[in-house]
């Protein structure tokens, strides 16, 4: 029987792409999602892609459950208790930075409680391997580039969303340590994502933000497709080559592959707490991204320079060497592929999954 992996938040942007990578690798999958920021259409499309790619023996189940409802969540673990979950990839969480400042309690409650429920159920049902979706935002106001996993975290985080990631990393570390000397040790892999963009090359799945996008590239692609008039560029007086903010963009398929690497890495490490940056190590400015998207889409992308956004830093890019050395993972796709695939998704689905 194929090992089964539980993907919390697996109907979302990064989760749905990771499902494809894991199906290709022969895993059985259970997705748990309450669809607060996603739709079952993404899972339907994943099935189509699996068929298009000729993946055999697809075993993909979906449970629509709010993980904060522990009793309902426990039923999922019970349902799969024969065979169980060989590992969990924990994507589920609320992720809009601005919203997290307006509604911090909602963010702390959802992101922390769903994690606590998950860990206690994993313990009860004896699943002891977890990959956690963290973020470069835990590095707060780091100024020295590139950012390594040893760069200080916690200081200078400017929003509640980022603090939930920082807190969850702490919870996972304490918990893993408490199990180290027992007969049932845990393996925990924390993946700190830089800026995921792009889509599966088929254009059938992609990022589908509800309301105005918080991140640059979904906004840029909505301008390209005519859904929004212009892009607001937050500041052009940063200390960067063209004055606009520089970030490390990573293709979502590369990022998804990092989760498979993390699972196989933990196969060899029954007791470990590891942290990896997932980025390309390249920094691109807002204006670099705009012109790359103009090239990919053949559309003009209008923009206006507006004030800086509080909390934004000039430059942020990763040192992703540790993931390469220890997990054998590295990003393979470049800016052209990111924009080509984002455009394939956006142009075929101008209104997302609607
Ligand atoms: N996309 C990014 O730029 C980025 C960057 C760094 C980290 N991350 C993290 O990666 C993870 C996945 O991000 P994404 O971009 O795919 O986001 P997403 O919103 O598309 O996916 C998250 C999924 O979790 C589900 N969810 C939320 N709360 C839940 C709950 N209580 N019970 C069950 N399901 C719940 C949502 O419905 C959604 O499908 C998140 O934890 C996010 O914080 C994302």
TrEMBL record:
Enzyme class per UniProt: isomerase
Documented EC number(s): 5.1.3.2
Pfam families registered for this protein in UniProt: GDP_Man_Dehyd
Pathway(s): Carbohydrate metabolism; galactose metabolism
PANTHER family: UDP-GLUCOSE 4-EPIMERASE
Assigned keywords, A-Z: Carbohydrate metabolism, Isomerase, NAD
This protein's name: UDP-glucose 4-epimerase
Limits of the NAD(P)-binding domain: 6-341
Species classification: Eukaryota, Sar, Stramenopiles, Ochrophyta, Bolidophyceae
GO cellular component: cytosol
Source organism per UniProt: Triparma strigata
Cofactor entry: NAD(+)
Catalytic activity: UDP-alpha-D-glucose = UDP-alpha-D-galactose
